[in-house]
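Researcher: I need the complex structure. Ligand is NAP. Inputs:
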Amino acid sequence: MGANKFGPPGWQDDPQWRGWWGTNPPFHTPTFVLTHRPRPSIEMAGGTTFHFLAASPSEALDAARAAADGQDVRIGGGPTMVRDFLAAGLVDHMHVVQVPILLGRGVRLWDGLEALDEAYDIETVSSPSGVTHLTFTHKVVS
Ligand SMILES: NC(=O)c1ccc[n+]([C@@H]2O[C@H](COP(=O)([O-])OP(=O)(O)OC[C@H]3O[C@@H](n4cnc5c(N)ncnc54)[C@H](OP(=O)(O)O)[C@@H]3O)[C@@H](O)[C@H]2O)c1
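Model: Output:
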């Protein structure tokens, strides 16, 4: 995940900050946080250990792959980090949930990714709640 998913702006100045999720975060795996201000790893209850690194997307993916030991690696946001991994061609599958709420501002997931759709098979499913699920599968993988 990116630094802004792990905490609010400036969390790096708070030595006590351990993420939003309480003592037992929902990840239950080694979890890598990309930040330009890394700190020592934090072991949480339930199998989550946060590791902090300043690295390129492909270096971060290598570290996560080594920790996953053959299992899948999940990239969890925020939008800046997802965009960088997409631009580097490192995403096999992506699930985007589009919610019909107009915020009108924020970090845009698609900026700089023109023609991304050509590299992926895309399926959409709408649900009665109004959200649309978009599933992207890289054509090299499918
Ligand atoms: N709803 C959600 O689940 C969710 C999740 C995430 C974000 N958001 C929201 O989305 C908005 C934008 O988020 P965002 O796109 O900024 O989030 P983000 O992708 O989680 O964080 C981006 C930050 O991660 C660090 N980073 C990214 N790549 C790096 C690299 N290669 N090396 C070192 N550090 C790296 C940098 O922070 P530093 O330079 O500060 O270290 C960068 O500013 C915010 O308003 C946020 O609250 C929502």
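Model: Summary of the prediction. The helical segments are 3-6, 57-68, 79-87.
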